[in-house]
Structures are given as C-alpha cells and as structure tokens.
Backbone:
C-alpha cells in the first residue's frame, strides 16, 4: 500500500510503501538508520542486516544523501521519534542514486544557501516554515469563506500606482507604459461596490532598495475591502482575522512549530481583542523612552519594535497624521489632521503586518485629494467613479503574508518564508 508519512499513523502494524528521499543516514554496523522524507514529513526507517537479503542491505548501503527510493516497511509506534512512528524496513528499491549533495551538516553561509535555495527548501527547517506558510494560506481562505467574502483577483499589470510612483517596476505594455502592481486595493474597492465584501490574495511588487530582514521585492498580500464597514468594525475584523490564523497554525502545525523551536506560549496569547494606541500616544511613548522623533514623522523599524515590546499581543497604532498617509484615507471627522487608519504591529520585533483604513467616500474631498497629490485625472477617473455612483462608507486593509509567517515561525529573516525570495540583487534561482 503506497502511503505518505503524514498518513503513516493510520497503518500501525501494517506493511506500507513510501516514495521518499534519503535525508540522512547512519549505521552501527549491523543496523542502518535511514532518515526519510517525502514532503509530508520525516520518518526513520530501520534496516536490520539479519532480517533482509544481502541485496537489500547493499541497496540501502548504496543510498547517498537525497537519493530517491521506494521503501517498504512495517509501521511501529515509537515515542522517541518526533513523528511518533518508525518504519521497520522490509524492502529498499532505489530510484536514483544522487550525486554528492552540496548542502551538508557543516555551516554554510547565507549566500551559499540562497544560491542553492532550490535545494535548501528540502531541509527540515525550511520544510517546516513552508508547511506553516501553506497552513496560513488555508486559514486565510477558510476565515473569509466563513464570513461571506468573495475572492476577487485584481490585475497585476496596472496603468497607475496605488500609492506612489517611486517604488514601482515599469514595463512596456505594447505602446504604453505599465507597472507591476504594488497593491490591488483600488480595484478591490471597485469589487466591494459590486459584491459587498471581497478579498484578494496575490503577488505584489515594491522596487524598494531595502536590505532589511523585513523586506522582499516580490511578496504576497491579502487585501480585503468591505462596503458599509467603518474604521471601528474593520479593526474588529482585523484582530479576529489574525487571531484565527495564529490559532489555526497552533492547532494544525504542532510538529512544525516544535521543529522550529518556537515558543508557542507567545502565540497562544494572540487572541482578540488587541490593544490600541493612537499615533500621538505612540509618539509620546517613544519620546518618553528617549527616541528622537517628532509628531508628523513616520515610524521606522526601531520605533515599531520599541512600541511592540510594551505589549504581549499585536498592537494597533491608529490615527496617523494625514500628511504621511495615502491619499484615499478618510480624515477623522473630529480631527482632520489625522486619518481613520491603523497599522497592526506584531510582537517580538516583526513590525507592521497589517495596514488599513476607512476610505474616503465623499466625491468632493476625493477630487481635492487628486489635486493635492497631483494625480492624473484621466488615469484615475474610474476610481473617482466609485464616489459618483452609489458611494458608501467602506474600509479595507492589507496583510503581508511573508511577515506574518515570519512572525509565527520566529524566523530571523523574511527570505525564509517564501519558496524563492526576490531580494535586492537576487533574482536567482
């Protein structure tokens, strides 16, 4: 019976067959211990010389790191094994004996590992991170499906910018200029006016020459937009969303989190409601702690980390100055110097994972913003139409997948949270 490591617990006492790769091997003379992986997990196969044919013993002995094979064996429960099970091998059928594998147990530099990213993702740690990434994606879809959201796909090629033209990748679109999308938000607002509550999940691109551990050139964003939803309700949806995702991973990925040596007690505490402070309160907090920052300046990574350290959950920073936020954000009716927005800052130094706001729904105010930000009226005419024909209060936000996965996994750098990261000066492999 061909099965997988993930399903092995259903076959205790039975003989099964696995398609696998040899992750590692050690021998005590008369016993060979095969560390096997099949993509769904890792398991040890034990080959006892006296219990197999000489040909089978030699076949097992010939296996090199990352050789592919079919292996047959009896499933046994074993409390010492990380998976809880072990395989008493009864058959070894090599498919391909791998050449000398470049990634070994010795210490490799980051650049070497990144050059061999196509092989590095086979390691236990990377497999755990990418497995958790997959679980986060699953949780995203389940959360929005349960709440009646429609999945909508905005374009990747766009004629205009969502937030500014300085961090865009330009391309030629036949006889006109186009850009790789840095956000699907504007299009999602249009979709929300048609379907009520929508979300997108796709790649976005930022041509930022940044080398920090939080930045990627190409990353994935979840961007919900919601008609008839004000700022306050949007915050409640955001904290419910993040809580749902974290608790989903805790429930479904215990082995992966253990493999990463993640302190799950910090994640278990991630449950709504989250603390909230205003931008003004955050500035006062930072100034009191000796940071040189003035009202009207944006936060950098050290500022976000300093604020997050004061809380044991993600924290919302709300009501940023109008001048440092995007043109589409709705001013606070009680104080037009700030907008109805919030950034959600993750604990443990992982920075902003969500940015969101209530959007401007007033036609005349949006026209004024076009003038203030020198936006091309022709290029943005369709976006202005949303305020002409049945405008309603609406809100939205964007969650960065890789930063969120990095925080949940406790990775040192966001490059580990995407299969093939695109970084400054790195387009290979």
Residues:
């Amino acid at each position: 019976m061909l099965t997988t490591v993930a399903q092995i617990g259903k076959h205790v006492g039975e003989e099964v067959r696995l398609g696998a790769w040899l992750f590692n091997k050690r021998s005590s003379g008369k016993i060979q211990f095969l560390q096997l992986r099949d993509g769904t997990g890792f398991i040890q196969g034990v080959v006892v010389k006296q219990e197999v044919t000489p040909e089978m013993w030699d076949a097992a002995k010939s296996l090199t790191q990352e050789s592919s094979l079919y292996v047959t064996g009896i499933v046994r429960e074993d409390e010492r094994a990380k998976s809880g099970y072990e395989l008493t091998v009864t058959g070894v059928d090599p498919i391909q004996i791998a050449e000398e594998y470049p990634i070994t147990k010795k210490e490799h530099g980051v650049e070497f590992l990144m050059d061999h990213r196509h092989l590095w993702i086979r390691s236990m740690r990377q497999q755990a991170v990418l497995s958790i990434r997959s679980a986060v994606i699953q949780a995203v879809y389940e959360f929005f499906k349960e709440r009646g959201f429609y999945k909508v796909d905005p374009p990747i090629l766009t004629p205009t910018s969502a937030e500014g033209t300085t961090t865009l990748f330009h391309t030629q679109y036949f006889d006109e200029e186009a850009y790789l999308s840095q956000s699907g938000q504007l299009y999602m607002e249009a979709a929300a006016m048609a379907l009520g509550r929508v979300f997108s999940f796709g790649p976005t691109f930022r041509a930022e020459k940044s080398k920090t551990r939080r930045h990627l050139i190409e990353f994935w964003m979840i961007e919900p937009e919601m008609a008839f939803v004000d700022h306050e309700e949007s915050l409640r949806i955001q904290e419910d969303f993040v809580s749902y995702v974290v608790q989903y991973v805790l429930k479904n990925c215990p082995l992966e989190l253990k493999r990463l040596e993640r302190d799950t007690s910090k994640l278990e505490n991630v449950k709504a409601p989250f603390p909230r402070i205003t931008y003004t309160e955050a500035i006062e907090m930072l100034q009191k702690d000796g940071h040189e920052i003035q009202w009207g300046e944006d936060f950098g990574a050290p500022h976000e980390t300093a604020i997050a350290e004061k809380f044991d959950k993600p924290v919302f920073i709300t009501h940023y100055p109008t001048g440092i936020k995007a043109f589409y954000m709705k001013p606070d009716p009680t104080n037009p110097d700030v907008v109805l927005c919030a950034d959600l800052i993750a604990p443990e130094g992982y920075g902003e994972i969500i940015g969101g706001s209530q959007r401007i729904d007033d036609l005349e105010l949006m026209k004024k913003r076009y003038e203030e930000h020198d936006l091309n009226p022709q290029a943005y005419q369709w976006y202005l139409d949303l305020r002409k024909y049945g405008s309603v209060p609406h809100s939205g936000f964007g969650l960065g997948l890789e930063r969120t996965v990095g925080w949940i996994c406790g990775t040192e750098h966001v490059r580990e949270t995407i299969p093939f990261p695109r970084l400054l000066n790195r387009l290979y492999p």
